[in-house]
């Protein structure tokens, strides 16, 4: 029977799904991703379809697997298909199916951490290329695939180092595809920019006192005034989304993600003592076109005013630079006629019978920002229609039919991108004659 398995036709749906499951079964969850295993798997996939491969460790133990399908006109700018290999942690016991078994249920849903974010995309790139190669297609432009580590913890040891490297420069990349989001309706979503994360910790101090005493300026009261102010702002932003005036990526989101206060005791917390310190953490996401200075002012004056004994810290991710280019303009990939790659994507999706929604700002962060910072166009796209958005959630799944459909979509996109030759002025005038 092992002989039969070896001889199974790799182009069947069941072979394609089983390769996806194999990748999902590798536990690459942070904070201790099994990169040795994922690297070996990706290299074996590359070998099976005769792609050139190399593994680069800009940081030790953080491998980037870089694959290449050489074009017949290698001087043309290349196509980069990027995906990250790590996934976020799981609470295994809260899942209906084990998050690293890639269980296929009777609806055809494949349950696994990474099924949407974003092992699907990495494997779909490979499957699309497998099929294009089998069909005899020859790319004019070189096509690269990068499988990068550590996106979920900021990408500093992965995509950021890669984008700044000489290796990357030598690749002469012209367009990058990276991750998007699932879509609950029939339209695929595509992203041309993303919000910038600001991770804010506010700290209140105040006089300690008896738990029975009502007095002003306790740390808890001071912190709660801030929390109330943050919540009013949050509600106003959220209302704009609920009313349909703004898309999710176009407002400033702010969510409280931790609260830290109280005087510990062996049995829990001291109940009759009002503590002298209290802290709260907020995940804030700032759209590229938002007024960052006014938000910073709001934080200093309303959310953590010194007049209320408050201090604040904006963590390492408050990176204004990542939402502005060197001229101070927001970093956005054009979605008009100035960007042929956008037009090609739209047409290619349509050609493969897919529907594309309006371009959006990605509400969270992706590695695409590092490529945009290098001045490159980057489009966030994960072809999952009719799918609930479950990234970072329990019971993340993707339906096998949607997964297979996504391969058709990438086949169409890669074909269009790898064949694209700009129409020069000469050619236009020749056409018009
Ligand atoms: C800011 S680095 C973390 C990146 C992460 N990306 C996807 O979820 C995010 O929180 O948006
Ligand atoms: Zn992701
Ligand atoms: Zn993620």
From TrEMBL:
<feature type="domain" description="Peptidase M20 dimerisation">
    <location>
        <begin position="194"/>
        <end position="303"/>
    </location>
</feature>
<feature type="binding site">
    <location>
        <position position="84"/>
    </location>
    <ligand>
        <name>Zn(2+) 1</name>
    </ligand>
</feature>
<dbReference type="Pfam" id="PF07687">
    <property type="entry name" value="M20_dimer"/>
</dbReference>
<dbReference type="InterPro" id="IPR011650">
    <property type="entry name" value="Peptidase_M20_dimer"/>
</dbReference>
<keyword id="KW-0862">Zinc</keyword>
<dbReference type="Pfam" id="PF01546">
    <property type="entry name" value="Peptidase_M20"/>
</dbReference>
<feature type="binding site">
    <location>
        <position position="152"/>
    </location>
    <ligand>
        <name>Zn(2+) 2</name>
    </ligand>
</feature>
<feature type="binding site">
    <location>
        <position position="117"/>
    </location>
    <ligand>
        <name>Zn(2+) 2</name>
    </ligand>
</feature>
<dbReference type="InterPro" id="IPR052083">
    <property type="entry name" value="Aminoacylase-1_M20A"/>
</dbReference>
<feature type="active site">
    <location>
        <position position="86"/>
    </location>
</feature>
<dbReference type="InterPro" id="IPR002933">
    <property type="entry name" value="Peptidase_M20"/>
</dbReference>
<dbReference type="GO" id="GO:0004046">
    <property type="term" value="F:aminoacylase activity"/>
</dbReference>
<protein>
    <recommendedName>
        <fullName>N-acyl-aliphatic-L-amino acid amidohydrolase</fullName>
        <ecNumber>3.5.1.14</ecNumber>
    </recommendedName>
</protein>
<dbReference type="GO" id="GO:0006520">
    <property type="term" value="P:amino acid metabolic process"/>
</dbReference>
<keyword id="KW-0378">Hydrolase</keyword>
<feature type="binding site">
    <location>
        <position position="179"/>
    </location>
    <ligand>
        <name>Zn(2+) 1</name>
    </ligand>
</feature>
<dbReference type="GO" id="GO:0046872">
    <property type="term" value="F:metal ion binding"/>
</dbReference>
<dbReference type="InterPro" id="IPR001261">
    <property type="entry name" value="ArgE/DapE_CS"/>
</dbReference>
<feature type="binding site">
    <location>
        <position position="117"/>
    </location>
    <ligand>
        <name>Zn(2+) 1</name>
    </ligand>
</feature>
<dbReference type="GO" id="GO:0005737">
    <property type="term" value="C:cytoplasm"/>
</dbReference>
<dbReference type="InterPro" id="IPR010159">
    <property type="entry name" value="N-acyl_aa_amidohydrolase"/>
</dbReference>
<keyword id="KW-0963">Cytoplasm</keyword>
<comment type="similarity">
    <text>Belongs to the peptidase M20A family.</text>
</comment>
<feature type="binding site">
    <location>
        <position position="392"/>
    </location>
    <ligand>
        <name>Zn(2+) 2</name>
    </ligand>
</feature>
<keyword id="KW-0479">Metal-binding</keyword>
<dbReference type="InterPro" id="IPR036264">
    <property type="entry name" value="Bact_exopeptidase_dim_dom"/>
</dbReference>
<feature type="active site" description="Proton acceptor">
    <location>
        <position position="151"/>
    </location>
</feature>
<keyword id="KW-0732">Signal</keyword>
